[in-house]
Please model this.
Amino acid sequence: MYGRLLRVLCRVGLARFARAWRRAVADPRAAQHERLHCILRRHAGCEFGQTHGFADIADADAYRARVPVTDYEGMRPAVDRMRAGERNVLVAERVRMFAVTSGTTGAPKFLPVTRSMNLEQHAAHLVWMHALVGDHPAVTEGKLLTVVSPAEEGRTTGGIPYGSATGLQYTNQALPVRRRHAVPYEAMCVHDYDARHYVLLAFALSRNVACATSTNPSTLVLLAERMRAWAEPLVEDLDAAANGFPRLRNAPGLSDAERDALQRRLRPSRGRVRALRERLHLHGTLVPRIAWPKLAALCTWHGGAAGFYLGQLVDPWGTAPTRGLGLRASEGVFTIPLSDATPEGVLAVGGHFVEFLPGEADPGADARTLLAHELEVGERYRLVVTTSAGLYRYDLADVVEVTGFHERAPVMAFLHRAGAVLSITGEKVTESQAAAAARRAAPHAAGCTLTLRLAHPPRYLAAVEPEEAGHLAGADAQAALARAFDEALSAENLEYKAKRASGRLAPLEVLVLPAGTYAAHRRRAVDAGRPEWQVKPPHLVRSEEALREELLGETT
Model:
């Protein structure tokens, strides 16, 4: 019943926004003007709006003349006042929560979340969901596995919740959508890192999952590995639950209070457990493609360095089509993918107001931005965004490339974070190039990070964790991988190829990392308070010393 309701929700919901969406992509200039006018009018009465004369701003030119481009450090003092409970600072409406994300200085960023901001994101997400269900209607025939982090991890001094924006979105979904989730929200809030994964898998395995979603593809790789490793105890716990016995006894690190709260909600059918046992006996283990043979789609991030992990999804998850989530972050939703297996998405011209800095350089005081209708195919731009949550001409520092147009709205793909490059002699190797080279040279590695070895002559160093312990143990195997990586990086970056040919860069070398290096890195980040969906394995580190400190815990 709820699968049918979900399909109806998508159709009815899109019908509500269809006229606005069609109008927006047909005339992005008018749509973006409307979005800017709406945001400025809504927040004209707050302190920032009064200081910058929002009420008198008539167009984008006037807005750009009055409001400078800023980054989070520029707005941190105002946000700190809001965290203490002060109102009408950056926004004129109530702050529902603060979305916490990592900051460039090491201190976390607290990004305000408002009701109007949620509506901007919801409109974009509804268009995305309608396209997904239209292309893959079978996603509504089973349960949804969606991995999020807790919406509330604490409270500010002013009593405002802070945590993950994905958790808030999860709990705010319409009833037909919430009913389709295989895993209850409470399972995402289990404190212990291992116990959280175990409980998530137990609930997910108890149902037939048709669509799995995680912002970070490395999370899907990790969940598949843990399903394989915990297959026996998971089925044992599900068998107990199906027969009325205490369940979740095998969950590592699960507190008694969490077990009592969750085990009552774990109710697999005996037929489902019997099917899992048969598959476990037949295959010797469980992975997602075995547990959920009718999986209709995988939804995850496709941009930048994600390709390295997307290739690792096929073996455990099977051949279900993958749909990108687009360029979205705690700051907002900026592109909407409308097709499979691509990082490209249509600019969400009906959501936030977005400006574009040509190239990748840091914005200067006199930097001139372009608007959506002024972009050109093949050019790269750095995003500057304005939202209904207090971000005004905020330097998102994400670099995109325009690849085409949908109607008149630009289609773009995320490339990398601005400044996320390695360079010794001007070659400027990007994160996406490093990940592509790793995918070609070491497609089955558990992880790979590129850094610089500043010897004489200087060279690049590829730190690689083998797929299995003992691989790359010999000098010959390491030398072969180094050559393959060197060739792959040369193919991705012609400047690197030229500098290698001229001898200005020495041949690349390989550093073999111990088994479990990237899993330990992920755990440390989560234990330190990072939302799990934000934790991405590093593909570029600026120095060998920094790499050894970050991945291996070595200090100099």
In short: The longest strand covers residues 394-406. Residues 2-26 form the longest helix (25 residues). The chain has 22 helices and 21 strands. The chain has a mean pLDDT of 92.
